[in-house]
Write a structure and sequence with these properties.
two-stranded antiparallel sheet, 390 residues, 7 strands, elongated, alpha+beta, 61% helix, five-stranded mixed beta sheet
């Protein structure tokens, strides 16, 4: 349903009035300052001219009283009068040019001021539109969260009622009800956690505790955690992570959150029978992780938008609040990395992110243990691929 246009608020009307008042004050101040500057400049010019006239007059007087030798000099009064007329004419021309320059500058300033104010007004309207959208998105989001939390609470209450030992097979009823309650509570915790994270991001206080750790082990843990969810939907989740430990600097809980968001998103949009692959590449100073799926894909115009707050496939999508990828982007960037998406509509999507690389592990170190069981299938696949290439 399209949102109704918002009517101008009283605060905005006050802001507009204040802006007009400030502009009038600015115009008056500019006019007063320009007049004062011109008077000061004119005073300096008049003083300089008076000093120059005094110097010329003194020089002439001194020349007139000098003793003359030989034949009397021709009268110079006529030449002096002509020189004075020439000086007055040049000064008048200079004054005219100065007045013209001042008027041109005033006209240019007025024109520039009009342009700058028009640009300011356009920017203000754009920011107001964005603010309206943000407020509307916030209201929609809060409404969706309230609706989802209410449904989850209703589910908890309903399953508590079902736990009453009535009828046959009470143990099975209790076990099924407890499983549902656990899922509902986990979803509620995720909703609340996302709200807390977004609030922390907006306030610039997203907590980070970066330490050096095994990034490959972290990715394997995330893969193992999502195997049941993938299997329940009929999706194959594959890990192509190196068997040996790889050090990086990261906040373990936050990066697990990133892996969880990306894997959950891939499972959500991959139909049964699809494949999701978690892989890692080692670059110069960074590690590059990717989550590739064979889902519906994303249009090229949406590849940037998916990392914005509240982004969803469509307004009727109830499979999330549109915060997971936004929070993941903020976490990755807080680690000094970056995140991006590549996709082909109808074939699938690949989400990438980078992490700063830690120091290399030395052979024989405690971390360089035997290959993890979760990585052995991936290692066998790579070996088979190498044999085929050979």
């Amino acid at each position: 349903m399209p949102r109704k246009p918002r009517t101008p608020s009283l605060e905005r009307a006050k802001t507009d009035d204040s802006l007009r008042t400030e502009r009038k004050k600015t115009d008056a101040h500019i006019k007063t300052s320009r007049a004062s500057a011109e008077r000061t400049a004119d005073g300096v010019v008049d003083h300089a001219r008076a000093v120059a006239d005094a110097v010329v007059s003194a020089a002439r007087s001194k020349a007139d009283h000098l003793p003359r030798r030989g034949k009397a000099a021709a009268p110079v009064s006529g030449e002096r009068a002509e020189a004075d007329r020439t000086v007055r004419g040049e000064r008048a021309v200079a004054d005219g040019v100065l007045r013209t320059d001042r008027q041109d500058q005033a006209d240019a300033l007025a024109s520039l001021l009009v342009h700058e104010r028009a640009a300011t007004d356009a920017y203000l309207l754009t920011e107001r539109a964005r603010s309206d959208d943000a407020v509307a998105n916030r209201d929609d989001f809060l409404g969706m969260v309230a609706h989802d939390v209410r449904n989850l609470l209703n589910g908890v209450v309903l399953n508590l009622e079902l736990l009453q030992p009535v009828g046959a097979e009470p143990e099975r009823r209790v076990s099924t009800g407890l499983d549902r309650i656990r899922r509902y509570v986990a979803r509620m915790n995720r909703l609340i956690g996302d709200l807390v994270d977004v609030t922390s991001i907006d306030a610039g206080r997203l907590a980070m505790d970066r330490k050096e750790g095994d990034a490959a082990l972290l990715a394997a843990e995330a893969t193992d955690a999502f195997q049941p969810a993938a299997a329940e939907k009929g999706v194959t989740l594959v890990s192509e992570i190196a068997a040996q430990p790889v050090l990086a600097t990261f906040d373990r809980d936050r990066m697990l959150q990133v892996f969880a968001n990306l894997l959950a998103n891939a499972i959500k949009f991959t139909p049964a029978g699809g494949v999701i692959t978690l892989a890692m590449e080692e670059g110069r100073g960074v590690l590059r992780f990717s989550v590739r799926d064979t889902g519906v894909g994303i249009a090229p115009s949406m590849l940037q938008a998916i990392f914005e707050r509240f982004w969803q496939v469509d307004s009727g999508d109830r499979r999330g609040q549109g915060l997971g990828l936004y929070i993941s982007k903020c976490i990755v960037e807080a680690h000094g990395g970056r995140i991006w998406a590549e996709s082909t509509v109808g074939k699938g999507t690949e989400l990438w992110f980078t992490l700063p690389r830690g120091r290399s592990l030395r052979r024989g170190s405690p971390h360089a243990a035997a290959p993890r069981r979760a990585d052995r299938p991936a290692r066998r696949r790579r070996q088979a691929k190498d044999r085929r290439r050979g």
